[in-house]
Amino acid sequence: MIKNRSSEKIGFCDSGVGGLTVYSKFRKILDSEDCIFFGDLKNSPYGNKTKEQLINYSRKVFDFLHKKGVKAVVMACNTTSASTYPIIKNEYDFKIYPIIQSCAKIISELGVKRLGIFATPSTIASGVYESEIHKYNSDMIIYPHACPDWVNIVESSTQNQPDKIEIIKQDLDVMLKNNPEKIILGCTHYPYLIDILSKFAPKDMFIDPADFFVEYIKSDLEKSRLLNTQKQIGSEEFYVSANPEEFKKASKMFYEVNDVFLV
Ligand code: DGL
Question: Any catalytic annotation for residue 187?
Answer without folding.
Answer: yes
